[in-house]
């Protein structure tokens, strides 16, 4: 198709503002789906898609529409809707020339509206603001327009009013897509460069790569190579999702589609990588490739150690479908064999965890998530520390660094005080505060990722009666006063319980852990000290009292010397046990300590 008649775009929105419904409406308008399919919420329904054999989720749908007597190809590229996947979002956006920024006109601008708008602006996309749900009685388009103006500099004249529910305004929206969004740049005569913006694994076909052809064209049977990882393949199938898989012999410059090339594992394909011709390669890859960065780590142990092989197989399968998830064998004297797993963020972790449980029926003991740290060694090397056990000796550490994020919270102004207080408790430093309108504000903070990754969002929601929304993006690693705390049970360090925390919270955190441990470990026949140590120095202690077997109860009568003898023996017995016996810690105890963050 003529380049001038191609439009590549994404839809970005805060969760629930109507992204999927608008996508379906556009597809309905273009005849890509029927009225019945529309009502089944096509793009969102995994089961439905499986039934129709389209595999999991079409990340790009090609539609054709007639507009003012001409035929246009519209490629709608889907973006993952969460901050954990912001790199993937940015790659999907670079595959486009424009983005629809959808805002629920009853809810107004929310944290992810702003975060997504920035991502699109950073990729130099043309933005079409869409006020959705104008059919709702609570719709307040004027307020939303004011907010868009204040925060993003968007003017009223740019906004399109839509009800994705009734279909009102969808014609105007399609008109705006064609009139306002630029066509792809003309690089028809250059060497092949195609960007991979997503990929998924299909049991029958292997890896399906989604790509945007930026220059040249790609053909069936062609030998291609991935420029960052260096692997080469022969293209066995090309096509587009319309939304069913629709084969093509060639994908031309500016087009979007899928490629199958007998690729066996998702780890062979990197989002952001550039595909070129093996025989006539482009000089350079497209800019912006970054390897996935795991920011959150957690250990998974099977509750039944006999489930270890089953768990290993399950993780291997999961990794096949998800190239940003990593796992390494881990052996803890306390919990046995398990895996240390790396995730892009907390939501990513929850997705993997749910799939592990739902699809594999394995009972799992999971340690509380921790972030990844960085150490600058005295010899000048920088390395990542994903687990306290990887920390070098103190004398070898020049600088200990933790990840910081830019945190944005949008809330009604009455909650400023509450949110400030919460942020302060979490070592957040307040930055800009901007009014969206007369009633709502956006506050920015610089926050340590470790402080917000676990339960911050739930606490924020609770403290603001559900009104606040938040989003964050990684800023980088910075020096911080961090320490490793060790937990000693009966004077023995339990590696699975070691954790890295800020020095100021070391004692509180350590105390919390040993208090929970004390409650969860049953009394033994001897006294069990529980200690918290930082750098070998004990900073807190609790004791689990022993059962005191009353061995003298049988000795009635007044033979005091005999009584003393027996008591002495018992004491020695206790000592012996103390020095030889390790404490039996029930797994439940670990769960309660590890899960509580
Ligand atoms: P996520 O996929 O969860 O991010 O949500 P989304 O942004 O894709 O929103 P979705 O399209 O699933 O819509 C969220 C809810 O709003 C659904 O219950 C829709 O039926 C409803 N909705 C979407 N558009 C409209 C609209 O124009 N009017 C009304 N009244 N409801 C709408």
List keywords for this structure.
597 residues; alpha+beta; Rossmann fold; Elongation Factor Tu (Ef-tu), domain 3; Alpha-Beta Plaits; eight-stranded antiparallel beta sheet; six-stranded mixed beta sheet; 32 strands; binds guanosine-5'-triphosphate
What would a concise description of this structure say?
This protein is of the alpha+beta class and 597 residues long. Helix content is 28%, strand content 33%.
What do you see in this structure?
It is a single chain. With 597 residues, the chain is of the alpha+beta class. The chain is built from 15 helices and 32 strands. The protein folds into five domains: 3-180, Rossmann fold; 193-277, Beta Barrel (Elongation Factor Tu (Ef-tu), domain 3); 296-367, Alpha-Beta Plaits, CATH 3.30.70.870; 374-479, Alpha-Beta Plaits (2-Layer Sandwich), CATH 3.30.70; 483-594, Elongation factor 4, C-terminal domain (Alpha-Beta Plaits, 2-Layer Sandwich), CATH 3.30.70.2570. The strands form six sheets. It has an eight-stranded antiparallel sheet with strand order 11-10-16-7-8-15-12-13. Bound molecules: guanosine-5'-triphosphate. Residues 13, 15-21, 44, 81, 132-133, 135-136, 163-165 line the site of guanosine-5'-triphosphate (GTP).
Q: Using the coordinates above, name the CATH class of the largest domain.
A: Alpha Beta
Measured by DSSP, the beta-strand proportion falls in 25-35%
The number of E-state strands comes to 32
With strands numbered from the N-terminus, the spatial order across the biggest sheet is 11-10-16-7-8-15-12-13
CATH topology of the largest domain: Rossmann fold
CATH superfamily of the largest domain: P-loop containing nucleotide triphosphate hydrolases
Enzyme class: hydrolase
EC number: 3.6.5.n1
Domain Tr-type G: 4-185
Subcellular location: Cell membrane
